[in-house]
Batch of 2 targets.
Target 1
Amino acid sequence: MPITIIDETTTARTDGRAPGDLRDVKITRNWLDHAEGSVLVEFGRTRVLCAASLTEGVPRWRRGSGEGWVTAEYAMLPRSTNTRSDRESVKGKIGGRTHEISRLIGRSLRAVVDTKQLGENTIVLDCDVLQADGGTRTAAITGAYVALADAVAFATRKGWVKASAQPLIQSVSAVSVGVVGGRPVLDLCYDEDVTADTDMNVVCTADGRFVEVQGTAEGVPFDRSELDALLDLAVAGCGRLAQLQAEALAR
Amino acid sequence: MPITIIDETTTARTDGRAPGDLRDVKITRNWLDHAEGSVLVEFGRTRVLCAASLTEGVPRWRRGSGEGWVTAEYAMLPRSTNTRSDRESVKGKIGGRTHEISRLIGRSLRAVVDTKQLGENTIVLDCDVLQADGGTRTAAITGAYVALADAVAFATRKGWVKASAQPLIQSVSAVSVGVVGGRPVLDLCYDEDVTADTDMNVVCTADGRFVEVQGTAEGVPFDRSELDALLDLAVAGCGRLAQLQAEALAR
Amino acid sequence: MPITIIDETTTARTDGRAPGDLRDVKITRNWLDHAEGSVLVEFGRTRVLCAASLTEGVPRWRRGSGEGWVTAEYAMLPRSTNTRSDRESVKGKIGGRTHEISRLIGRSLRAVVDTKQLGENTIVLDCDVLQADGGTRTAAITGAYVALADAVAFATRKGWVKASAQPLIQSVSAVSVGVVGGRPVLDLCYDEDVTADTDMNVVCTADGRFVEVQGTAEGVPFDRSELDALLDLAVAGCGRLAQLQAEALAR
Amino acid sequence: MPITIIDETTTARTDGRAPGDLRDVKITRNWLDHAEGSVLVEFGRTRVLCAASLTEGVPRWRRGSGEGWVTAEYAMLPRSTNTRSDRESVKGKIGGRTHEISRLIGRSLRAVVDTKQLGENTIVLDCDVLQADGGTRTAAITGAYVALADAVAFATRKGWVKASAQPLIQSVSAVSVGVVGGRPVLDLCYDEDVTADTDMNVVCTADGRFVEVQGTAEGVPFDRSELDALLDLAVAGCGRLAQLQAEALAR
Amino acid sequence: MPITIIDETTTARTDGRAPGDLRDVKITRNWLDHAEGSVLVEFGRTRVLCAASLTEGVPRWRRGSGEGWVTAEYAMLPRSTNTRSDRESVKGKIGGRTHEISRLIGRSLRAVVDTKQLGENTIVLDCDVLQADGGTRTAAITGAYVALADAVAFATRKGWVKASAQPLIQSVSAVSVGVVGGRPVLDLCYDEDVTADTDMNVVCTADGRFVEVQGTAEGVPFDRSELDALLDLAVAGCGRLAQLQAEALAR
Amino acid sequence: MPITIIDETTTARTDGRAPGDLRDVKITRNWLDHAEGSVLVEFGRTRVLCAASLTEGVPRWRRGSGEGWVTAEYAMLPRSTNTRSDRESVKGKIGGRTHEISRLIGRSLRAVVDTKQLGENTIVLDCDVLQADGGTRTAAITGAYVALADAVAFATRKGWVKASAQPLIQSVSAVSVGVVGGRPVLDLCYDEDVTADTDMNVVCTADGRFVEVQGTAEGVPFDRSELDALLDLAVAGCGRLAQLQAEALAR
């Protein structure tokens, strides 16, 4: 699924992609039998299992508001990575990175949810990385949206959400961009990620607006023109992901 | 893969199996790209991802012994079950059941490992339940053995283990048995498990000897004849699993 | 209190016992002033303090059921063992073995409790190992039953449990068996335990039925005939323990 | 210290500032006697104590590299906020927000440190919020840089860092921007922050390049033109902060 | 503010004080904008920020009693000390010393509070050590009383406490005394504290009675005459502190 | 073992003792088989098991000093008290009171140990309260000293401590005193403790000097004359305890 944005470069990326190419993206719905929505999302070798759990009621601080709640938890299996990491359950605490990404996924999804339309129901999105090869948080957001859509549809079928309600305003997806070898590229795999000078994760709605922009200078600080090029790539990439989400949901 | 032991019963089990039938068992090797051995094992709808991680060296208390170490960690994804469970990493501690099963898997595998032949290498087996429908610990042991065998083969290819060494003495597998509706049955699914009077997990070597026998009276205590019938079923079931492991490793 | 089962062996055990001999077992009731039931139970040098605490009400998940609850917590004092162990309270978490044994004791006691007859009352059994010389979990179960019986009697005297109710169905006791030096023996002390090939804990009711059977191959896997011999020893040992419990309760 | 960027608006902000105005910024060096560098930084009523602690040596994973290490920890006093929050030490774990901000401050400072020039020394920046009124993380970065500069100077005076070395490449500062009432504004106080549609934290070097850009749509997603306006405001604000840092260090 | 008690000594203390001299004591009220009472208290270079947080309601175990509750939490910033200490929040647990001092402060304040007069309101005193140079717990108690008085006045103004009520019986303050170089001295700074043979913290009410007396032999045990001399010094020192508290509250 | 100090009172205490009477004190040595020193100490119904564990080597921060280390850990069994308390191991953290008492016991013992004479050996005193009826910390100190003496004697016999060394300077014991019903009394049982106006724990050496004096006003603050009366009682009580310790060690 190549979307060529910058093709002035002749040297291919490590995996042969052009700078504006996504990796192969697969979205498999209903991967689990129990969850109200579930998706195995793959961005190349990155593989994230997204499960949406719907429950009646909301956290205490939201009770009586008439509004629902959507939240997310992200985690990596110990051997999703190249070398094994210790389990956070065994260490007895969640690391900073895990916390940060869980919060990012939750915020990103809530940006497209009209919690009033959801009623006092809660949907938790569990995003567990089965295999990591860069872009796990962006794959998680992209897959979690589809699982969320399935859980909302389930809630509507069950009558928990009114038939007339539209809890989802539009779709949301995410992609990473970065400057690798001096060149802005889309959807970095792990090998690219570790050598990137700038690393940015961008979360966009289907209409091309921004939900989150998180850019970090890994090596030297970046300037406005680099930032602009990265944003262009990201917006285009999210546009393609929004199509893939729509196709998956139409199946 | 039916193995009929007791067929005097005419009423089928909830899923149509005879008392001595295993569920459909699938063993998919190399499900992950990074791990030295990895298996997705399925006992019906129960699905466990077993990843073997090989590292040079052993825990401090074993250094200088010339012997290797094999250990295991078991965990369930929050939505592997019918209703979502809280993450143990978020709760900040491992529950008793998790501890117990992790220890059982580790002991079961070590029973067939000659740690002297392994040299000072460590293999950690991560058994993560992606979907639970009864028998997750027995599926985990059965799958983990195959992942372990692949990791040992990897270590041998890399020269970490001597070509002449035989770290694996024989294979090991496990199955649950129980008394359901007054009748001993093999390989209980969740619906059977919750109604069982007696619940037993049996771990056997390929030559039909016992590594672990763990029987618990859930309702009324059981007598020797029930125990004997359950052990018969379990030994036959493990025999069939040993064949399936061998077939998977031969592919 | 020797109960000879196998006497073809002429070589005595390290402490002079025949294979089917229990160690000296002492059951001292009312060792504490505050607890509703309390027992200092001794299996040779193993010494466990079992305290039964009775409270009105049940855990939240059981409220309104009309049924009671019985649970247990096991722990070892830091210097109950040969070399000092760190406190689990200082480490900030319960180890796997502690979890496992606490759960075993709780299940074993509940197997002989008719929770409906108990009414909505809770009894917690605290089993604290003051000195460990093998068989701490089996001594704990054996002593805890007596403390439980005293707490139930207390509850009946106080009218918390109806005079006509029979919350205890029968007694329960436990003993370890194992294969030491190729020979099945009963009630292993620590020195025997560390050299045992097979180690089994068996929990029986007074009528000789099984509540728990937990056998583990420490060295080589064991076969059915060894398992049978161990079960025979254990059933006989539990029978003797049931007598001792009855005698203690009759005093 | 007003820096007017957008002055087409006639309605003042809640505290009377123009959209491009910073709050009163005060940087007080040497607020502590023990620390190698310390700054009390104030952005209006937001007050953060930044202490730089210099120690010889680096974390284990960096030993022998010849390179130094700079890291940061952020925390809020329980009553820095409008209503008291529980202490994270009492809760026994660090929250996600604390983790996230600590990591942000550390990355931001490392972006302007040449760790090779620092030699194998570690500098920890503790940023404790004494009073919070919005923008605590940006104040922390801005103040921490000055404390870091003082600690580097201390290290140089002591000879821990060579006289010829230049561990600091340039200065770094940070500011928040957001869309409040439909209008992009600089350096939000708490009242503005809670009503902002978009909230962005920008970290810039003295030469106006980006170290971090973190924008979040709190309400509706934002478009490219809003993003551009916010970036313009932020770059100008960081420029002013860089001057104030330089003035403080010149005193 | 010298109060000379023992002046037979001619050699001055390390900072020039006479044995019965307090360090310079400063009590700055309203150091924070949000808290209902707040004090920056300084005993020489020791600097503690005391914030009083008033909330309606009391802990569960006190509900319906009609009585209020006063408690305290003490903590040190990581770089309040000469060398940096790890954060207790990062370590995931509170140390023994922190626990001990928090409890001491709470008890000391409750000794002068008539909780019935307070009504069902809670006041939490957070005492955070910004800089430590000996005597942090005594400075904390002395400052916390003033913050408490301001919070009570606030509660009275708001009508949470009846205008006629007198929740504060009298003032309370604390000071350290010790035997340094064979000589009893008042209000030890850190350098004196580490070399003291006996270290005592004394908490007194304004009328010169004792709330807490905590004496510890650091080196050799102390005798009754030393104890008496230390108590004399402490009572005089607390008397002076009570005046300073009264002056601060009168401003 | 009555030691009458104040006999102007005619009304007896709840248990019939005169104000200056200790409860029955029993010191049973070698209560455990494994520990290098062990004592079951009883102050009336208060029963504390003190185990001394000797190990070669010292904590890291003391290595190479040539000096030994003595420390203590105090804990209560869940049902040592009138109503059951939750286990600190299950709660995952040590409470403030436990911390405080552990530290007190450790300091008290170190006050009579010449760590240079001990050589680089560590002795840990575990003081576990089996039954609590007031005065657990003072019983713990009193019993722990005897266990310590036995462990030192063991170390000397084994040659870990030189035959000529005298690691113990003198004995140490502790007792509680308090003002109950307006009258100073010695060695309070629980019923007295809860009604006491002033509560003081005093740790004395055999020669009648003070190691610790910890007095707390529970109700109204106390004055100097009350303090003096309490100290008199405590010194006499510790004197009697020192005799009992000596007698126990002489047996």
Target 2
Amino acid sequence: MSKYYPLINKNSEFDAVILCDGDYPSAEIPLNILRNANFICCCDGAGNKYIRRGKMPNAIVGDGDSMSKNFKRKYKDIIHIETEQDTNDQTKATRFCINKGFKNIAYLGATGKREDHTLGNIGHLTNYRKEFNIKSVMLTDYGYFVSAQGNCRFASFKGQQVSFFNIDCSKFESKGTKWKTHAYKYWWQGTLNEALDDEFEIKSDGSFLVFRTYLSKNMENKIFK
Amino acid sequence: MSKYYPLINKNSEFDAVILCDGDYPSAEIPLNILRNANFICCCDGAGNKYIRRGKMPNAIVGDGDSMSKNFKRKYKDIIHIETEQDTNDQTKATRFCINKGFKNIAYLGATGKREDHTLGNIGHLTNYRKEFNIKSVMLTDYGYFVSAQGNCRFASFKGQQVSFFNIDCSKFESKGTKWKTHAYKYWWQGTLNEALDDEFEIKSDGSFLVFRTYLSKNMENKIFK
């Protein structure tokens, strides 16, 4: 049976939330997921920012680059420094959560600020699925990214904006999308597609990323324009 | 001889600036380039936002989706509607500028807001170089993307943060970067590199994107943390 990816809403539940040090969420859905989180793990500098908002994470994981000596002393019970330089703070936080037994992880604040970090953070989702076999969703203020592989079904709604990013597929066919898909060579080729109804399907032979918006195009135009 | 990519600063000159409808620039370098532009072409909704700031672009190009009837009437002399749906507003604006004879284009406001748009906009740089043979730079609040191919030299400074995104290289070797490069399979693998001195070099057999920051890592930590 093909894997099924449900819609995400403000009541979606996750084992853990990893709060990264990009733009702090400002939309209702990511904010609500953060508010209701069972376990919150902040990436390095995001810990300080989260605490300054009057909250307390369960853990702060990273290379310690963005923490002052004072801060490290004060919050030593929840801080876990990992200095190895082969990966980024988001991946260190992911490993930490996996070691705690969490398998269903929401990433917040992973986009915004430096665009190369944004691209790196999104790109890592493919590896988390492949290497750690976890279910992860990266939520932004506009929608959410998931990493998928092979044949999959995705919950959707009429008018939902959908973008596909091909990682290593040579076959990539869709059912239930406004525009025909193919095994895209360039990033932009799979963007700005649209769901026709409450589900679409992908038949592929490799890894890909899917971005689905919270709102239909009409609603986006009303709210953001 | 290998192609050379200079550093960008607030006095860098371009034939035209294309202002996209992502986040409006807020850093000094993109703002100064916008202020000193010879020709400003806004993508669809960015035109309205630019005018609301008390400025006047030379042209507004797009599918007209984000413009009211009134707005279209009032600014009909500078508005150029292109309804074809095979490409996005940024590409329509690019074609418009090329038809005016502009070959050296700066893109501003192309990142931020919906992340799939951001990815699409960045990804298009490769095509603009390949199809239109233009020199283009996409400037964000943190740094700038360029599309490159084959063997190239890049101006840099010690500590400049550099990220590479492989599009279709099977060979990708660098000189003058902190970390060794290779023909990356995943987006994140080429991120978070660093320039050692005032130039680095890439020897490759295909297309790639390079992001260079305005500031060194130390300066970024001081300003943004």
